[in-house]
Write a structure and sequence with these properties.
The complex is a heterodimer of chains A (248) and B (417). Chain A is mainly alpha-helical and 248 residues long. Helix content of chain A is 63%, strand content 7%. Chain A is built from seven helices and three strands; from the N terminus they run H-H-H-E-H-E-H-E-H-H. By secondary structure, chain B is an alpha/beta fold. In chain B, helix 1 crosses helix 10, helix 1 packs parallel to helix 12 and helix 6 packs across helix 13. The chains are: A mainly alpha (248), B alpha/beta (417). The interface between A and B is large, with 39 and 40 residues.
Chain lengths: 248, 417
Amino acid sequence: MRQPTNKGKYIAAAAITAIIFLLGLFVGLTVDSKRVNLIQDQYLAQRLEFESSQLQYGYISTITSKDSCPAMYQLFYDNLKKMDEVRIKLETYALQSKINDNSFELLKREYTIEQIRYWMLSQQAQQSCNQDVVRVLYFYSTDKECPDCSEQAFVLDYVKKLFKDKVLIYALDGNLVQEPMIVALKKQFGVSSYPGIVIETEQSSNEFVSKDRILDGICSRFKERPKECPALIVPESEQENSTEDVTA
Amino acid sequence: MNTVVQVLLWMAAVVSLYFAVFWFLVLIDGSSEPRRKEMKKWPSVTVIIPAYNEEDCIIPTMESVLALDYPRELLQLIVVNDGSKDRTDEKVKQAIAAHPESEILYISKPNGGKGTALNVGIKQARGEYLATMDSDSFVEPAALMKMLPRFVEDDIAAVVPAMKVRDPKNWLQRIQWYEYVVNMFYKEMMGRLDCLHVIPGPFPIYRTDVVRELGGFAENHNLTEDLEFTLRLQSRNYRIIQVMDTEVTTLAPDDTKSFYAQRNRWFKGAVMNAYSYRWMLFNRKFGDFAMIQLPTILISGVLSLILVSSFIYYSLKPYVKFGYNLFYVDYDIWTIIKALTWHPSFWDLDFMSVVLMFIMTAISLTMIYLAHRRANESMIAKGIGPFAVFLVVYYLMLGFAWVGVARDLVFKKVQKW
């Protein structure tokens, strides 16, 4: 006789499968909460570093000696780099999180504010220490709204790697409209679509900008053109004039 | 689109996990070794070997059958040459001449497919029991003595031996050796629930009257007549017993082309035959076979395609994207490499997927370990390398065979002998 259906095993297997998924959900919840705590701790540490940098630049603007400027700038740049790494991590965590979206959104907002603070401090640093750096604001959005953002981020990341501390790139989520500063910056620089690239005080590109165009924009802003910039092509007529000048 | 893929992936994960848990429960429910009866009188047996272009191994196969430890007068061997174009005919005659003491019937017929060859043999069979034998397989001498006592009840239509890969030489054959060991274990569990869906060609024993009652094997059935016949047995509520104490060995494909062709045939045959018997689905009259085994066969291809394609997609996507993006920076990879930093963190892992993967891997490893223990084989018997490949990428490789099956089913490609 054929065995009767093992109904008990079907139900038990369904129950165990459900338990495993609940376990996964529980682990996910615990991990999300750990991740939020971890990023909050890092945020507090970076907030402290920022305040220290702010104090240092405030102090240096009151004295005539600028000897400590390079070391201060290095510290500032390292903190900014660290903060950007955490921002990227935060974006990944928020994408993976199915449970704790709200906490991640709040953290994202805190980090955005922090980026803007750093951007403003870098202006002060430029003035106080006469630093030859170029600042870039990068407004991005989700893949759906901005199919080119992934490629644009890759190009900007490349530029960051190429120029290291000579170029400061601040990535801002353009959709974070609950943050008034984002709205204000978008208005100031005319960001109407993504990706939006703002080099120093230029108006936003509002489209994908190629590596060459970014390099042109950045390199024209340096007081002293760094070696990473492509060689300048001087028109022939100007070349002749300069030769004549030298001869004269 | 992305959401659809995600939902499909999660559904595939849930279903796969459910099946893994179910069979694990069957496993830990305790072994119920098939019973055996005391044989007062040994019955007559006919062994049928259908052969098509088997000049290389027909003699050893016939020798292995003729070496069976069984009374000569009760054993009949029928060799059916299905229109071979090589020297099979000459080799069969040579083997017959070497064994004048045995009853060997040789039938040569025009090529018509394996099913037709088996049916010609069945017509001539005089045994109460019937064994079929693939012409590239070999049986142990005690097989009949061990298997015939398993026909304890009248509704047991077939008894199936454990099948292993014969003398694996290269990596592909060694990997398949591991696969066969695990498959046998899985089949033993299926047998416990009367769920076997295929009786492979090498030396299963049938009740001759049942085979005749069912009209023999399907002819022109894309070389999966064994699958079809098993489903027919299941549809008539006959039972099939899988035994582990009797071994047959078979030659496994030794190159990727023939390996792919074999798997393509098996998988396609399984899906097509199961689809033909879809009317049995979820009908309690057919027990666990209809409730779990038939649905598994029908969706296994889809599951495999989803899991394999998503695995490939998610593994390769970042690299393809990286390669594509390099175009935007004039392929200046050196600048990127120089600035590479890596700060891995435990908390960066995608834990939900990790938990799921961990549990499924744990279940799979337990199954593999127990399968080897049951088969009295070491997990590294055929080398650590082939075992590692079997463990890590083999089922991914099989996924590619499913891609071919999907393509063939769409374009209705016909299988040939």
